[in-house]
Design brief:
Elements: H1 2-25, E1 36-38, E2 44-48, E3 54-58, E4 65-69, E5 74-77, E6 87-92, E7 98-102, H2 111-118, E8 120-124, E9 133-138, E10 140-145, E11 151-158, E12 167-176, E13 183-192, E14 202-209, E15 212-221, E16 225-230, E17 236-238, E18 247-252, E19 258-263, E20 276-281, E21 289-291, E22 301-308, E23 314-321, E24 332-336, H3 337-345
Antiparallel strand pairs: 1-24, 2-3, 3-4, 4-5, 6-7, 7-8, 8-9, 10-11, 11-12, 12-13, 14-15, 15-16, 16-17, 18-19, 19-20, 20-21, 22-23, 23-24
């Protein structure tokens, strides 16, 4: 009898382990663990409200901006009340207004030209009673936005040059409302890719580090590592130190000690098509990594564009096909970090 019971226990244990392994290899846009919830059926590039009760997101590239209320489970369109060319980014500002990146006129067939060279910065008033105000600055990909101050960072791409001589620079500035409408003041270039050691690299700002907003996480690509930029002296520190992988910081933890990373380190490729979500300790001497999702385990799907809630309890992100254009999403997902930790301890 004891042998039978032991055999049943062993079979149950082995089956459980195999099921766990099988689940990781079978993750898809509809199959994933119960600590992840899909909250919208459309949308991409999420951002958390400061109170953690709402999710801001873009409907699609060059689409409208929506807000999802986690308590009522209802959508609210934020940009339907005026004509615009479409938006590719939306971020909550510390005063409740919304920083947008988008084009003045809807793009034609050359969406790359519009996304990478014609997108501009705008501010949408939280009262939603007028069109967004144009700030007069072009923005390459996404801006970085302070969670506590009216401070922003953005990159600009100058000309469609060959890769060997392409020119990017990174700006920081502050939003000032004293004239009755938002304008950027105290703006300055803090990094450009003509600097020795990063010449010709793509520069994109990501997050101001909480409790130390004199440092900004940035992506530098060709080698695509996670860097920290000191905004006072311009010093760069490499946190990931893995040029063989694609490592792009996206989303910062409120303690400022960790960041989320779109990383391909699970398959050792330098490709944005082979990414999943990882957690990286911001310690250049001991960069500790922890994998968060397994959507890309067999190379069919990928998780991307994660952001962490201000209380550090949840991650919002998107899932799409591995070969789809970077930034595309087909709905917003939320991962409960406490449930994730408990699941990993089993």
């Amino acid at each position: 009898m004891k042998r039978v019971l032991f055999g049943c226990f062993l079979l149950f244990f082995v089956s459980t382990v195999l099921a766990q392994e099988l689940n990781k290899s079978n993750w898809s846009d509809t199959q994933y663990p119960d600590y992840i919830t899909k909250i919208t059926d459309f949308g991409e590039r999420a951002d958390w409200s400061h109170d953690g009760k709402r999710i801001l997101f873009v409907e699609r590239s060059f689409g409208d901006v929506y807000e999802y209320n986690l308590e009522t489970k209802k959508y609210k369109p934020l940009t339907h009340h005026y004509f615009h060319g479409g938006y590719v980014r939306a971020h909550y500002l510390s005063n409740g207004d919304i920083l947008l990146s988008g084009v003045k006129d809807f793009p034609g067939e050359d969406w790359k030209e519009a996304r990478f060279r014609l997108a501009e910065l705008w501010v949408l008033d939280k009262n939603l009673d007028k069109p967004a105000e144009r700030l007069g600055e072009y923005c390459w990909e996404g801006p970085g936005v302070s969670r506590t101050q009216l401070k922003i960072a953005w990159a600009q791409h100058h000309g469609l040059y060959p890769e060997s001589i392409r020119y990017y620079n990174l700006w920081v500035g502050e939003l000032d409302y004293s004239s009755g409408k938002p304008v950027i003041v105290n703006q300055k270039v803090v990094l450009d890719n003509q600097r020795e050691g990063i010449k010709g690299m793509v520069i994109e700002p990501q997050n101001f580090i909480p409790d130390n907003e004199n440092e900004l996480t940035v992506q530098l690509y060709n080698n695509c590592d996670v860097y920290g930029l000191n905004l006072q002296n311009g010093a760069l520190v490499n946190y990931s130190k893995a040029p063989e992988n694609y490592d792009e910081p996206e989303g910062i933890f409120p303690d400022g000690k960790y960041t989320l990373v779109e990383s391909s380190r699970h398959n050792q490729s330098n490709s944005g098509a082979n990414i999943d979500l990882w957690k990286l300790k911001l310690d250049p001497e001991k960069p500790e990594w922890e994998r968060i999702t397994w959507f890309n385990e067999v190379g069919i799907y990928k998780a991307s564009n994660p952001v962490v809630s201000d209380d550090g309890k949840y991650i919002a992100f998107q899932v799409t096909g591995a070969k789809e254009v970077a930034g595309i999403g087909h709905g917003i997902y939320i991962l409960d970090l406490e449930k994730w930790k408990k699941s990993n301890k089993k």
